[in-house]
Amino acid sequence: AAALLAPHRGDWAAALATVRARGPEFERRAAGLSENDWYRLSRAAEIALDLEATGAPPAARQAPLLAGDRFDVRCCFLAPSRPRDGMSASRPRRRR
Hints:
With about 100 residues, the protein is mostly helical. It has helices at about 1-5, 10-20, 25-30, 40-55.
């Protein structure tokens, strides 16, 4: 994507036209971008180039789970108890 956009750095219209000219997937990804959003234009081109090269989006190419890879994951969180009177421990108590 960087090589595709490098000759047009600073010229948004030319960079957008170059990306759109690559095909319908590029056109679709570039259609909703805000003007001068170089990061998203580069990312859209990167994803479209990847899709063009592999035929599948990056998320579809994740390795499948093996039968033994299924884990029971449990999380526990410990926190200090709060004062019972509702006052925050960080605030000083008022004297009566």
